[in-house]
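Help needed: design a sequence for this.
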């Protein structure tokens, strides 16, 4: 398993978005690892998309404030 966290403000067109997606795809496809994120937008979204639905999941919490 590998965990990916990053900025929620990284837009789809930014280079770091593509890097996160490519990294997650490599971890899932080449290494066979599950990719886990904080289930947010931006970098975390890119990682989930890169790894694919079967090889990733997001974990988030709801804070009481």
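Sure. Designed sequence:
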């Amino acid at each position: 398993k590998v965990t990916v966290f990053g900025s929620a403000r990284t837009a789809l067109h930014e280079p770091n978005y593509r890097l996160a997606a490519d990294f997650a795809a490599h971890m899932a496809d080449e290494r066979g690892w599950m990719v886990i994120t904080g289930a947010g937008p931006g970098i975390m979204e890119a990682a989930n998309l890169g790894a694919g639905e079967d090889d990733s999941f997001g974990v988030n919490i709801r804070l009481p404030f």
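The mean pLDDT is 95.
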